[in-house]
Amino acid sequence: MDKIAQFVQKSNCNATTVAVFGAIGAAVVAFKALSFFKVLVDVFFRSGVNLKKYGAGRGGWAVITGASDGIGKEFAYQLASKKMNIVLVSRTESKLKALAQEIEEKYSVQTKIFAMDFAKGDDKDYQSLKTLLTPVEVTVLVNNVGTNHEIPTPFEEESDKIVKDIVEININAAMKMTKIIVPGMVSRKNGLIINLGSFAGLVPTPYLSVYSGSKAFLSSWSQAIGAELAPKGVVVQNVNTYFVVSAMSKIRRATMLIPMPKPYVRSVLGQIGVSGGASTPYTSTPFYSHAIANWLIDNVFNRAFWVNQNYNIQVDIRKRALRKREREAAAAAKNQ
């Protein structure tokens, strides 16, 4: 009888253990399902803060860096279409002049341009830009300018110039631009800072180590200043971006996961203050396919798996890029 009692007691204990772990498992699955459902609600049904809060249609100015092409150019168009005055900052003056004229004629807003090479990090350029911006009420800053490695490259083989350019353009430019503009936003207790981040900052990317590190910095820095500035009425939003068709991405064809700049920027401006697929504070992943991908990275497998995936992807891209260089060099030698 004692053995039977012990067996029954042990069976009950095992059944209780299974039930407890089963309940925990069900709770985890339910939590994951709810978090995924929230992502879908965010990207398909929720609207962000109206840009009128940040001066749209009321004389507010938006400053956009890297404004002459791609995503930056599209930010200029869409903010101007919402009746914001635009300051275009980029390297090529001729492109800026043409874009400014087009925006003024099409959207009946004011524009200012400032040509500077962010790679130089020239303090005189930043001081001149500060002087240009002093008379206007800047309510939106889009830190968009950025650069990347030419091809995936091991860190020890990367040129000093490319390393320097990535740090100067992707990190220092965002800090210097924000340092110029944020005091005015704080004094008015109103402002919006959009920092263009990257999935490379979400998951470390081997062979793009400096670029990946720069975007990880931007993510961490955005969260830190976001917490500092929120009580002062200034919103900081680091935008997690996967690939978008652009000159920098070297992608020319749009897919479900790789949008054109127009729908991508529309999603960013339409979901200010909405996290979308992002799980970190002061961050948004607004484009629907990017949001789902962000959720998968955060919730499926561990970070080591995704780093290894990035490694394999970049190794393959590097091999193809080197073969292309070899073909181009052979063709050039043949034509000499």
Automatic annotation (TrEMBL):
Keywords: Endoplasmic reticulum, Fatty acid biosynthesis, Fatty acid metabolism, Lipid biosynthesis, Lipid metabolism, Membrane, NADP, Oxidoreductase, Transmembrane, Transmembrane helix. Pathway: Lipid metabolism; fatty acid biosynthesis. The keyword Oxidoreductase applies. InterPro entries: 3_ketoreductase_fungal, NAD(P)-bd_dom_sf, Sc_DH/Rdtase_CS, SDR_fam. GO terms for molecular function: ketoreductase activity; very-long-chain 3-oxoacyl-CoA reductase activity. Pfam families: adh_short. Its main location: endoplasmic reticulum. It is a single-pass membrane protein. Its EC number is 1.1.1.330. GO terms for biological process: fatty acid elongation. It catalyses: a very-long-chain (3R)-3-hydroxyacyl-CoA + NADP(+) = a very-long-chain 3-oxoacyl-CoA + NADPH + H(+). The keyword Endoplasmic reticulum applies. The active site is at Y211. It is found in: Endoplasmic reticulum membrane. Substrate binds at S198. The chain crosses the membrane at residues 20-45. GO terms for cellular component: endoplasmic reticulum membrane. HAMAP family: 3_ketoreductase. Component of the microsomal membrane bound fatty acid elongation system, which produces the 26-carbon very long-chain fatty acids (VLCFA) from palmitate. Catalyzes the reduction of the 3-ketoacyl-CoA intermediate that is formed in each cycle of fatty acid elongation. VLCFAs serve as precursors for ceramide and sphingolipids. Belongs to the short-chain dehydrogenases/reductases (SDR) family. This is Very-long-chain 3-oxoacyl-CoA reductase. It comes from Entomortierella parvispora.
